[in-house]
Amino acid sequence: MSSFHYLFIFGNLLLIFISLTKAASLDERCDSNPECIGTGLICHTNLCQCDAPWYKPCNTVCEVQQQSVYEGDTCRVDDNCMRHARCDNSSKKCVCKETFSSFNGLCRKKYNETCAGNDECVSNICDISLRRCTCQDGSEPLNDGRCRRILARLYLNWAQANESKDFCYNDDSCLNILATCRNDGNRMEKFCQCPPNGYTTDFNNQKCIANEIERLSPMNEQTSTDNTTCVFCKDNNAVCANVGNKDTCWCRAGYDKVGNECQNIRYKFIFPTAMDSAQHSFSSTCSINGSIESVQDSLCSCAAYQEYDAATRRCKNIERQWISEHFEYGICTRIKSDAVAQGPINALCPPPLQCRANGDKYVCSCGPNKFLQSDAIGVRCVYRLGKPAENSSCPMNADFINNTCVCKAGYNQVNEDRGCELVLEHQETLADCSTSGSVAANNSCKTSFGGAARYCRPGVCRCDPTISFRDPVPVVCYSLLGVSQPEPNCPPGSKPPNAGTCECKGENRKSNDNRRCDPKSLLYNWNEATVNQADLQRGDCAALYSGWLADFNDTASIKVCQCAPIAFKSPSGVECWPLVYTDLTGSVSACNIPNSMQSITNSRRCECQSGYRPSNLMKRDCVRIPGRLDESIVINIPDVNPITASDCRALFGVLAELNNSRCVCPDDISFANNDGSRCHGILNKPTGFQTLISSDCPQHASTKITGTCQCNEGFVSSADNRICTTVDIPLVGTKEPLSANSCTNFTTDNCIAKYGTDSFCENNQCWCNRKSSFNINDNRCESFSNYIFPGLHERHNVSCDVDADCTRDNVNIDTVECTHRTSASSDYKVCVCKHGLFLNPFTQTCESRCPSDCNNRANSVCNGYNCVCKQGFIEENNTCVPVKEQIQLYKPCNSSFVATENIDVTCSSCNRGECAFSYRDTGFQCAKFNFDNDRCVTQGPNVCNALIGNSRCFEEENKCVCESGYYRDENLCALSVDSRCTTPEQCGSNGICSGQRCRCAEGKRVQNAIDAFGRSIQRCINDNTNGADQIRFSFISVLFFICVRIFFI
């Protein structure tokens, strides 16, 4: 049979075989691999699936995974292999192409081998002119064909570096991690040097030693010119910050300089989360008890120029006082949580002050050469004395002359050039005074202290003792009585000068020292005086005193100023007040005793007002009549009216009436309150009194209808109509009110009356409006906006560093965290409730407002007010069950699918489940990428840093390494000892961040090491000098003694 016939028979048999064979596509059922028709398909778990990890599903086909397999690992096709590698047909492993060598799973060419592009070379540099792989500047070739960076040492100058031919190319080419690569300004070659500011160089040990400064900013006048630049600060609570273009040590956020130490000034304060303030109205009504607030960061906060008072929980004015020329009106510089200076902060400086630069700080200032002065014009900024001035805004008693402010003649410049002083000195001599005072200086003294004042020395005047004397109140020079002088200034009690001489008025007599005009007689009550003033006349008394004075004539046996028998001396001692309930000798012009009035029936008598009577027989006062309702009130003072109905109404309200010396409440329309102090109208019953007011009604009642007491809205009257009470309706919780009212037996007014204005009625129960209020002590709805928070400009005082800073007796560390609240308040870390918890601003605690059974509900978590299912679960019949449409590896998915709880699988752009970032596809399962053991190039350049910060994928070694200056420590990359830090975590498990500097913790020690790039670093390790090292020494010692015994015995 011919070959054609054989071929024909074989072809027919093949067609019959294919027709009898079951063909399946992606995701269809199968029993063996041949049934799966399509590129990259295999039969796995009785389904046609892509041959993972070499092929992956994309929509309905399998796509080859390109450059995903390292040299030496299993492959399917050439495209699986990394660049410059192929898939060997026999071994099915990736092998390097000819002329390429393997380097940690990658195929590259060695140093000096021919190349066509950078990606072919292990050094990643192909010299195009030579078409050969070469090393980059600052590197040298190794025997294995790779390149190694040459690390340069520290040198004092170019000559030393040139002698060793040890130049650098960039900062990374310096052996010391702190060194910088720069030239000397004269030559092109660069050499490694310590940073120019803040460091000194130890050439013997090849170290850059950072300045550790003890002096703290803000500095005083004497030390502000210090040019030492800080890197670290000796005080552990200080940071090196740049303020006013100068690096100095400042106390960190929450600390202030006291002496030369940083002291904690924080008060613990908790803020709501951003979700909390978005869900609740913390800022709906920002005006509380006269405080000045503004809405900041969605909270009622203290406004600019205000500060939070922790004692009252209110805002108060920021008060600024002059400190010194260098500090002016106080510091307005703050250090933020990231150790960066914040300033200028104008909100800390009440106008007209502004926050301005002054040396190493920002201060509240009026501006150059100015200060704050309060005068008749108001509070304003004026120029300091003797400084350049642009206008005539000068201090009091100063003149604007030649573009500067100078004190007026005679005045002395005081108070750091901020005042002009002129005092009247108490010295009765001019002998030691200057005789060269100008006329202007003398005139200043006369203008301020009187015509007899004389200039003595700058800022000091004295009274001329030959014609005057100094009076302490007011401070002035008074003329001596009876002494002629050119500019008399007569003392009190004297008459206008005659021919330059001061004399006493007729009712006064001159003192022996010629300095006083004393009254001829003091004022006495009737018959109290015993001293006779022989030259006293009745007119003298009238000139000295007023009121009801007693008469006397020239023949009287005792001449004295005294009140008439119907009057008494007033508390001031210069008036005679009429007695009450006493007939006067004339019509009443004024009743002077408090609570007294002219009698309605007798124009010549003063009486006490209704409800008042004299306290005793002397009738010199009017006091409230003592007694209560239904008590007998007896007044036993002669000529004084007994209790009247008018008195009852004044004492106990308009409804009170008199009954046999008792004030009583008429039973038909009123009743006495509990303490018997007032008659209250019976509720809902007309009293007939048009003048009835709310105080005549029971509590929570008012006169909505004239003359009738009725309960206020939301209150109901008791069965006896004597009490307004709230209704018996419970407060059951918080919720958002419905648009339709579902209360049938009660009203929202009933809830407001009992629980506050933020409550409402729903389903015959009271609720707090969740948006605006919270339930306080289970008996009131408290508005969120009743609470004030520190303003953004004063968050320095409430900042924190770690969660432990936020705890106190009633605050659990598990409920609060130290973080940045929002982007608007990112300058400072503050204490904030943890996610899912709400702030109770009354108790300053964080609380859950979920149903109480949430903790007992499987697979659920509390989120705000709701108990919700965890990720990957959905609620069914009040239980959390797994979501049916979860993303599964290689399976079809879309945006509605839910990720599994361990989030190792995500939905790709091909609408298929794939291993998430930082997971490796190992074939039908996802393995977490291992930082220390897995190769990283195929995972992408960011995988290392995503797992552990401050790391990268080092392509030359194809592994994750810590960045230069860091070392591997447990689950992080830690900074080298003496590196600058901001958090303790940066310094590793054996280190601490103290004073912005990584140091070894107590019980740890420093060990010299190198980082992944060969640079010198130091790390912290356990101090085993008392443990392992001793054991190591003991073992060596034993070996030593054994050797000695063998060889010498």
Automatic annotation (TrEMBL):
Signal peptide: 1-23
Top-rank taxon: Eukaryota
Record domain EGF-like: where: 74-108, 114-148, 167-209, 229-263, 331-382, 678-725, 845-881, 980-1021
Keywords: Signal
UniProt KW Secreted keyword: no
InterPro entries listed in its UniProt record: EGF
PANTHER family: ECDYSONE-INDUCIBLE GENE E1, ISOFORM A, FI17111P1
Protein name: EGF-like domain-containing protein
Organism encoding this protein: Rotaria socialis
Lineage: Eukaryota, Metazoa, Spiralia, Gnathifera, Rotifera
